[in-house]
UniProtKB/TrEMBL annotation:
Residues 52-171 form the PurM-like N-terminal domain. This is Thiamine-monophosphate kinase. Belongs to the thiamine-monophosphate kinase family. It catalyses: thiamine phosphate + ATP = thiamine diphosphate + ADP. It comes from Paenibacillus xanthanilyticus. Residues 184-347 form the PurM-like C-terminal domain. Substrate binds at residues 83, 310, 373. Catalyzes the ATP-dependent phosphorylation of thiamine-monophosphate (TMP) to form thiamine-pyrophosphate (TPP), the active form of vitamin B1. InterPro entries: PurM-like_C_dom (IPR010918), PurM-like_C_sf (IPR036676), PurM-like_N (IPR016188), PurM-like_N_sf (IPR036921), ThiL-like (IPR006283). The gene is thiL.
Length: 378
């Protein structure tokens, strides 16, 4: 009979011959998820029954005035080697980002993120402590955004780690903001700088030592002036508060979040709405550290800004007459909003008006390619 004893965490573990803790699937799940969330948060999200049964039970939350809400449902997956590797991300960063990418999709509909289901497929080579750290990051992000983790699934995996997070959110009935409502004359905005994550990834891949088997330390990035870029890549901060403030104004006509790159997301709005989005180069939110790093590496910063991706800021359109007031209202809350262009009538597409610095050529227009991160193309 397998030896076992009561571990201080209250979970019953088998003991390997060498004395190493051997946890079965259910013990691991309890270790990763047991009593990790504040009871107040679970109550706030209407969780009647959370982790531990066949399915979670949650109440449908009313809006602030007691009115009806609608559910928002989204899922996003992260796969080792595709979305991260040993060098680019720590295990806790993977957990944070897996949930953050989902929270960002709820923000992109103008909603409030509420619940999450977490599916992990774990290679046999991953010691349990690594998944424990992944859950540290997941729960840190869940706590930050007030999301209740109410269940999930656990399997082994023949090779890479896969983590898939499903989120729910709610939005006032009829108030979800799609990609399809932009009209000619609307202002185009973003809720934060773009290109930092792509630049951070570039730096991380260059700094990675083959076979080091551990993430590039943040201290190395600090020493090189790229810590903000690495943080943007590892710990994105989706724009939930900005989304809620903007949605409440009733003047936002389309919204999307930047996962595949500003160009790709702008194309999605342009196609869904049947407009051209014209971006002004001089108005784009250039980050100082991203621009400095790009110049050091001889890269055009626009490359990361337009095509880098994983920024998890929002791109949207808003009625022109409310654009400046909305910007000021967000600024009053310490939240950035940059007006970066205009929706126009005409052929569906995205263009860039070159009106910045040395590249200035009397406002020359360039067509922006429908390119960005694509899982089956490059
Ligand atoms: N395998 C799939 N089955 C059904 N719907 C999918 C699948 N993959 C993606 N989708 C849907 O296609 C749309 C685009 O997906 P995606 O580009 O991943 O969105 P996002 O960038 O917002 O995460 C979304 O509505 C998503 O729900
Ligand atoms: C090791 C590594 N290589 C490449 C990338 C770049 N990358 C991977 S996925 C992705 C786009 C975003 O992921 P996706 O699954 O397309 O999210 P979604 O659009 O569904 O929200 C990018 C830019 C990375 N993050 N890490
Ligand atoms: Mg997706
Ligand atoms: Mg999205
Ligand atoms: Mg994508």
């Amino acid at each position: 009979m397998a030896a076992s004893r009561r571990h201080p965490d209250g979970v019953r573990h088998g003991i390997k011959k060498q004395g190493e803790l051997m946890l079965d699937e259910f013990a691991r799940i309890r270790l990763w998820t047991g009593e990790r969330q504040r009871p107040a948060l679970l109550r706030e999200q209407g969780v009647v029954l959370g982790i531990g049964d066949d399915a979670a039970v949650v109440e449908t939350p009313p809006d602030a005035e007691g009115g009806a809400t609608q559910w928002l449902l989204a899922v996003d997956t992260m796969v080792e080697t595709v979305h991260f590797n040993d060098a680019t991300m720590g295990d806790a960063d993977v957990g944070w980002k897996a949930l953050a990418a989902n929270v960002s999709d709820i923000a992109a509909m103008g909603g409030v993120p509420r619940h999450a289901l977490v599916s992990v497929s774990v290679p046999k080579t991953w010691e349990p402590a690594r998944v424990g750290r992944l859950y540290d990051g997941l729960y840190a992000c869940a706590d930050y955004y007030g999301v209740a983790i109410v269940g999930g699934d656990t399997t082994s995996s023949p090779a890479q780690l896969v983590v898939a997070v499903t989120v729910t959110g709610t939005v006032e009935a009829g108030a979800a903001i799609s990609r399809a409502g932009a009209s000619p004359g609307d202002a185009v905005f973003v809720t934060g700088p773009v290109g930092m994550s792509g630049a951070g990834l570039h730096w991380l891949l260059a700094a990675a030592e083959p076979g080091a088997g551990q993430p590039v330390p943040l201290a190395a990035a600090e020493a090189d002036g790229t810590a903000a870029l690495v943080a943007a890549h590892r710990r994105p901060l989706p724009s939930v508060r900005a989304a809620r403030l903007l949605a409440a104004r009733g003047t936002v006509t389309s919204l999307n979040d930047v996962s595949d790159g500003l160009a790709s997301e702008a194309w999605e709005i342009a196609m869904a709405s049947g407009v051209t989005l014209a971006l002004r180069e001089s108005q784009l939110p250039y980050s100082g550290s991203m621009t400095a790093y790009a110049h050091r590496r001889g890269v055009d910063p626009l490359e990361w800004m337009l095509y880098g991706g994983e920024d998890y800021v929002l791109l949207g359109t808003i009625r022109r007459e409310d654009a400046e007031a909305a910007r000021a209202a967000l600024a009053a809350e310490g939240l950035p909003m940059y007006i970066v262009g205009e929706a126009e009538e005409g052929e569906i597409g995205v263009s860039l008006i070159r009106d910045r610095g040395a590249a200035r050529q009397a406002g020359r227009r360039e067509a922006i390619a429908k390119r960005g991160y694509n899982h089956f193309n490059g």
